[in-house]
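Q: A small favour: would you put together sequence and structure tokens for a protein?
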Amino acid sequence: MDIKKNDEIKLNIESMTSEGSAVGHFGGVAVFVRGAVPGDVITAHIIKTSKRYCIGKISEIIESSPSRIESTCSVSEKCGGCSFRNMTYDEELKYKKSRVEDAVKRIAHLDVPVKDVVRSQSTAHYRNKAQYPVYIENGKMHAGFYAYKSHRIIPCTDCELQPEEFADCINAFALWTEKAGITSYDERTGSGLLRHIYLRKAVGTGELMACAVINGTVLPESELLVNGLCRIEGLKSVCFNINLENSNVILGEKTVTLWGSDCITDILLGKRFEISPNSFYQVNHSQCEKLYTVAGDYAQLTGKETVVDLYCGAGTIGLTLAEKAKQLFGIEIVPQAVENAKRNAALNGVENAEYFCGDAFDGAKELEKRGITPDVIILDPPRKGCQKELLELTANMQPERIVYVSCDSATLARDLEILNSLGYKTKEITPVDMFPRTPHVECVALITR
């Protein structure tokens, strides 16, 4: 059956995609609709068609799903970040588990036990980092988030995922832009100063960092901004980051501290970690502790093992395990993160950790040349997963166990199939809900030789 643009069709919503769009079928054609919930019966207005699929928007909800709830956010439909804002949390967790199970069966072709998703105690105010794009119009600053698959800013300063103090920080920035006559960056022309407002919170200590990302090398009326921000309880650092590139990368390489410390300090599983603007750090503090606890359980350390952390970042996972290991080696490609890892090791009195700066493959190759034989290898790659050559090298090092931490179940499944062909069997997967109300889910996999 042909579907044309602007058609109105009745649609039964069956499932959700990995990006958080609802999906139903009409005449054998998949129709994707943002904001619908599995179990809904809707009238969908078709806004885009292709040979393989269509995209629609809700014209009318004919019959509501039993899982449908009212969104408590005024901009969730426009923003698109919280795909599950109008669904019960229990149903959200069921979907996330089924998505992991489906990826493992369909992509990895493996029969692996997937445990229930480790639920979050809170689904609000859990993020410890926010990057707000801004635009300034008629002297008034608007900050918020990009609409789904666009660079159109939806103003929102009181996002339910962010700490409440962040709204106070945004207000201080708004007052500064107005009084100092600040302009906002225009990505079409490359002109204008203020690109993003970047905020971080160390939940364990309550310390805050406020950073202006600018298209320039000098921050005008910086004292005015500092004075406004210093009224906010917990503020520890005010800085600006220089990004002169015409790209969608948020942070540049150089950061200048205007007031306070160059970093903030958090406490995670009893360890202290310094967080700089460029540090990778999990955005959900309480769920991160659960994630690392699962990783530690899977590592099964007795104090005799050599552990290699191939994407160590600032050293967080490895350092929470170091006291149970004989020796820890960390490899990370970002120089600043390696320095952070070394400093964090010293901060926690960890003396059995050694860190290398380099690509994960090159670093593992160097360890192999040195004759280091790991008992446990930790993999925590970016969303794209691991390169096949790294997985082959990992298997060649013959660790007893591999603990794979993944933020994308599809690339995890792909890599598990490769490891299976190399003689490593996936024993169990535990999903952890690091990002409630969004479509993302983190996983930890236990893989044994």
Summary: The mean pLDDT is 95.
